[in-house]
Amino acid sequence: MRSKLIYILCLTAFAYGSSSAQWIKSDVRRAGKLYKKGNYAAASAEYRRALLKDSLYAKANFGLANSAYQEGHYDQAKSYLERLAGTAQLPQRHQADVLHNLGNVAMKQKDYRAAVEAYEESRIRNPQNEATRYNLVLAQRLLKQQEQQKDNKQQQNKQDQQQQQQQDKQKDKQDPKKQDQQQNAQQKQDDKQQDSMSEQVF
Question: Is the pLDDT higher at 176 or at 51?
Fold first, then answer.
């Protein structure tokens, strides 16, 4: 009797598990069709429905990241992709796709250093992907430009500060009130020095 009960429980769990997996796949298929039609918001809803059933389901996470990217929600896309990137069970090719898309998100956010790193990691996992190679070269070029602009801006700020200091000095020299104040201050200082000298003589 007891073994019969265990057998029934196992069958029920197996049936539920396989039907749950079918529901997830069905949700993901529906989401994929919506995504292809360009209905990204509806696709996101379907992917989320699948993730409620299994939050680690890779296809749902990947699809949701892509939908969020298409809607311009780059931070969301990044979080889903980072979750996937940390999954060791993904095959190399899928890891390369995840890293490629992380690079795309970084490019949209103008974080070219992160984009270069993501594309390089993607190329390690899938060296044949020409789109990744192209994006890597572009990200490297944009990173170099960004660093040059940053350096130029720092130099310009430094020159502006020096120029401002020179203008302030010239203004002080040309301002008659300030000149009078400086002369009075100098005179007082000279008087104090003479007084202190005379005290030392006696």
Answer: 51
